[in-house]
Automatic annotation (TrEMBL):
It is found in: Cell membrane. Pfam families: FtsX. Keywords: Cell membrane, Membrane, Transmembrane, Transmembrane helix, Transport. Belongs to the ABC-4 integral membrane protein family. One of its GO terms (biological process) is transmembrane transport. It comes from Lactiplantibacillus pentosus DSM 20314. The chain crosses the membrane at residues 17-34, 54-82, 103-128, 148-175, 201-218, 224-253, 283-304, 478-500, 531-553, 565-587. The keyword Ubl conjugation does not apply. InterPro entries: ABC-4_Integral_Memb_Prot (IPR052536), ABC3_permease_C (IPR003838), ABC_permease_BceB-typ (IPR027022). One of its GO terms (cellular component) is plasma membrane. The keyword Membrane applies. This is Abc transporter, permease protein.
Length: 593
């Protein structure tokens, strides 16, 4: 009988359960995506050049576990809040507490296990889809990566099922020890914020000091090594929570004292935020951390992606050099519409390559002179035969010939001296396109046809360097972009779940406002402002965390981690705005229908 009544309550609040279930599915899916990388040691070792990457991922697992604990704790409280009234009614009509406790425990476990299994399947599909998109669009080279990884699934199941077992026991105790009358009116009890100046001042001071220590640890990671990551993890998480807990409560109370609160529905909006103030501070702290992780990961991933062609361009002025090109190869070169194409004739011995000096005087050979290796500042230098003979960078010419000739010494001869050499004459064709990245497929095909290999050690030029650097940084680039997308999805899941989970209970409040003559435009404006506050606050904190956190990557990035930072920030802002628009659209449909 109780089971039938419980199912009736479930059908009545199916929208709330849909929000809960979808949120838990996304949470477990994202956790699986992270663990698919963190637990795959073979992938991490073969695709990154950082020796301590495994330990870094372990710290990341700890942070994500903390986020998961808060998320599941909130999801469980939401589940409990939905059922308190129903089970209070069951008690009022004579149902035994032990039977009700058993029912809520089974319900909690069923929701958790089902969401976890579905989440792992969704996570596997997302891992396969996202990884394939990144590999194809960015031209990455990865080894030992698998979308389905059993250890990651096992870790996800153990964590989530274990947490829901504990949550079920907590729900059982909470319901059986709470009087029926209190259960009936549990959702009508607000959590009003109260200013405690000394306590909040202490939280602000401790929070700022904690975050400052975390920023210092990230800036000095080269000295502190793993300890720096651990210190930053603990202090920044703690400091973020303390600041939100102190400042957000103070902000809500303080704003009500200004005339601003008396305009339109501003007072109503502030009261709506104040009503769930304590839950908001916990969730917004988590969202701020996820915002920083997502934006930081995407910024670093794009940073690695942008520095690969820069490193390739700093190696040589030409994309590739081909000896004795065929008609087909010349057609392939022409199809790429190169900016520069030169052909030089030469005769070679085992140790020396002889060139016609007149050709270099007519078609100067460009070399690359480095100005600042750290920032990859370089200057192209035009060289005639005499200048190139004396240049320390003339190895860039023989490098383009590839094979055994790459190590020979270049010598430039007059037409008379060159004609006296008995060796057979050969041709070296060098060319430069507008972008190695753009023409990487055509260059790969050309290299395979001419050199019968795609091994970059067998030929020289920008494309060969691009392949070498890409193989070194592909893993880091992929990890950054992949985790950035995963954390962005987790951020959206947390924030949307937090906002939408309270939409059903807010519905009657907006209905009352509608009945007293409030216009639709005013109601929409109040909703937009309320949700905007919940998006903006963690966004500001997250951006500050990222700006300081990028200091960590100075030791592994050739270019500055802040180079071109505006692009990932702009892309992320667009996605964040999209999430905001989606959230307010869904929220409006629920509360204003």
């Amino acid at each position: 009988m109780l089971t039938k009544l419980a199912m009736t309550g479930f059908k009545h609040r199916w929208r709330d359960y849909l929000v809960l279930f979808s949120g838990l599915i996304m949470s477990s899916a994202i956790f699986y995506m992270f663990e698919a990388l963190a637990t795959n040691n073979a992938f991490l070792k073969q695709n990154t050049s950082i020796g301590m990457v495994g330990f870094i991922f372990q710290f990341g697992s700890v942070l994500l576990t903390i986020i998961t604990l808060v998320y599941i704790g909130y999801a469980n409280s939401f589940l409990l809040s939905m059922r308190k009234r129903d089970y209070g009614l069951f008690m009022m009509v004579g149902a035994r507490k032990s039977k009700i406790g058993q029912l809520i425990w089974l319900e909690t476990l069923l929701v958790g296990v089902t969401a976890t299994i579905v989440g792992i399947l969704v996570g596997t599909a997302l891992t396969a889809g996202v990884s394939q998109i990144l590999i194809n669009s960015l031209g990455l080279t990865l080894h030992r990566f698998a979308a389905w990884y059993a250890p990651a699934a096992l870790v996800t199941i153990l964590l989530y099922v274990g947490l829901f077992l504990i949550a079920g026991v907590f729900n059982l105790i909470a319901l059986t020890r709470t009087p029926a009358l209190k259960l009936l009116h549990s959702n009508d009890q607000p959590n009003r914020p109260q200013l405690k100046p000394m306590r909040q001042l202490l939280e602000v001071i401790v929070g700022l000091i904690s975050i400052a220590i975390g920023y210092w640890a990230m800036a000095n990671l080269e000295t502190l090594v793993l300890a720096g990551i651990g210190i930053a993890l603990v202090t920044i998480v703690l400091g973020t929570y303390l600041l939100f807990n102190a400042i957000f409560v103070w902000l809500m109370v303080a704003l009500k004292r200004f005339k601003f609160a008396q305009r339109g529905l501003n007072g109503f909006t502030l009261s709506q935020l104040s009503f769930r103030i304590r839950n908001y501070t916990k969730m917004l702290s988590i969202v701020a951390m996820l915002f920083a992780l997502a934006l930081g990961a995407i910024t670093v991933g794009m940073g690695f992606h942008s520095q690969i062609p820069l490193m390739a361009n700093a190696n040589n002025a030409y994309d590739m050099g081909l000896v004795n090109t065929t008609k087909s190869e010349r057609q392939q070169i022409a199809a790429m519409k190169p900016k520069t194409t030169h052909t030089y004739h030469f005769k070679a011995t085992k140790k020396v390559t002889y060139y016609r000096a007149a050709e270099f005087n007519q078609q100067p050979f460009t070399t690359i002179k480095m100005q600042n290796k750290h920032q990859l500042d370089y200057q192209p230098v035009q060289n005639n035969a005499a200048k190139l003979q004396k240049s320390f960078d003339n190895y860039q010419l023989t490098q383009l010939q590839g094979g055994t000739m790459a190590a020979t010494t270049p010598v430039f001869l007059s037409e008379t001296a060159y004609a006296k050499l008995a060796q057979p004459e050969q041709r070296l064709t060098v060319f430069t396109t507008n972008s190695v990245l753009e023409h990487r497929s055509a260059l790969a095909k050309l290299a395979k046809e001419h050199f019968h290999t795609t091994n970059p050690e067998q030929y020289g030029g920008r494309y060969a360097m691009y392949q070498l650097v890409n193989s070194m940084y592909s893993g880091l680039e992929f990890i950054g972009m992949f985790l950035g997308i995963a954390f962005l999805a987790m951020l959206a899941s947390c924030l949307m779940f937090k906002i939408l989970s309270g939409a059903a209970t807010d519905q009657h409040r907006y209905a009352m406002l509608d009945k007293v003559g409030t216009t639709r435009r005013q109601l929409t404006g109040a909703i937009n402002k309320k949700i905007a506050v919940l998006f903006i606050l963690p966004g500001i904190v997250g951006i500050v965390h990222v700006l300081f956190g990028l200091q960590m990557f100075k030791i592994i990035m050739v270019t500055s981690p802040y180079t071109g930072i505006w692009l990932p920030f702009l892309i992320f802002a667009g996605l964040y705005l999209l999430y905001y628009l989606m959230t307010i659209t869904i929220y409006r449909r629920i509360v204003l229908e």
